[in-house]
Design a protein that fits this description.
four-stranded antiparallel sheet; 2 helices; globular; 80 residues; alpha+beta
Length: 80
């Protein structure tokens, strides 16, 4: 399982900073917690990234990462 950090429209920043591998056995609540922790790790040195990443979506494989979100079938979760 892979967490993709993005904005509220599903747009990602270039690069791999917003991509976080996850243990697929975790419950969705715990996957969201890990994604939020990954986001918070950037707060001190890269606050613009932390502000940009307000949502997350999950894919199973790296090949499934779309170029654009465009309302894909996988849900977009808000990082609180």
């Amino acid at each position: 399982m892979i967490a993709i950090l993005c904005d509220n429209q599903g747009q990602r920043m270039p690069g791999s900073d917003g991509i976080r591998p996850l243990d697929g056995r975790l419950a969705i609540r715990n996957q969201l917690r890990v994604a939020k922790q990954h986001r918070e790790a950037y707060r001190k040195n890269f606050p613009h990234k932390c502000e940009f990443w307000t949502h997350v979506y999950f894919v199973r494989e790296i090949q499934n990462i779309p170029d654009e979100y465009n309302g894909r079938s996988f849900p977009l979760y808000r990082l609180q």
